[in-house]
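Worked problem 6 (solution included).
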Amino acid sequence: MACSTASLAATLLAFALLFQACLAGRRLTALVQEPAITMKYHRGALLSGRIAVNFIWYGNFSAPQRAVITDFVSSLSAPPAAAGQPEPSVATWFKTARKYYANSKARFPALYVGTHVLDSSYSLGKRLTDGDLLKLAAKGAPSRAINVVLTADDVAVDGFCMSRCGTHGASPRSRSGRFAYVWVGNPASQCPGQCAWPFHQPVYGPQAAPLTPPNGDVGADGMVISLASMIVGTVTNPFGNGFYQEGSADAPLEAATACAGVYGKGAYPGYAGSLLVDQASGASFNANGAHGRRYLVPALVDPDTSSCATLG
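Solution. The predicted structure is:
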């Protein structure tokens, strides 16, 4: 089941506009660098084998927006050379999550793009609850799947912008199986300064110029950051008893969310770190993806070093 939004009290500090999450999501908080970040395995089941990533597009998404997000998922498990991903690549970034499986009996899952469900008619309205998100997620596969619900920029979701930018959780057990799910909202018109940073000026903290998004879409590129965090959280902690930092199980820090706001070396509150820049467009990125795409992905806790690892 998804983590309660009541456990996600957001903190806005004047010197930081950064993102964290519990099992339920990526949220705003201050960056606190610990000498060592230890992710403990709580002995729960992990995903393994071939896992379909199914998309439920709720509301209006353009074809280019869908391509940006779908190509990101395609980049996760594809061999960099075969997928045309020069280093640093999304696939190499995702390999850090593989290290967690060395401490379990499960085999690291092979993710692949599954089905697409388009719900442009807003079948559940334009204001959604956590229960609605689960209903939408159920439109994907009933098992061996991560069903990703993506809501358009005119859809309000409980807690969106106030305490979270995305969530992940799992369906209840049933005879047909159990699926993991992710929700991410498009922040372009509701809270770009919160959920699309560093591609938009923050609401609080240092007011440095925003970075140019690598795919030219503040909302879609912001969604990729949240989606990346939530997919890693799903793979390493799919049912709430996998890998997370010791503390409250209701609001655990996971492999990506423990490194909130860190994208490159030298990052600090209000500064995303040293990134690559496309000389033609001026866009900032840190990972190459499939089909010539470029993305900004969050740092992940490397279990070998107990620290936030960045590409490059």
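Discussion: Residues 1-33 have pLDDT under 50 and may be disordered.
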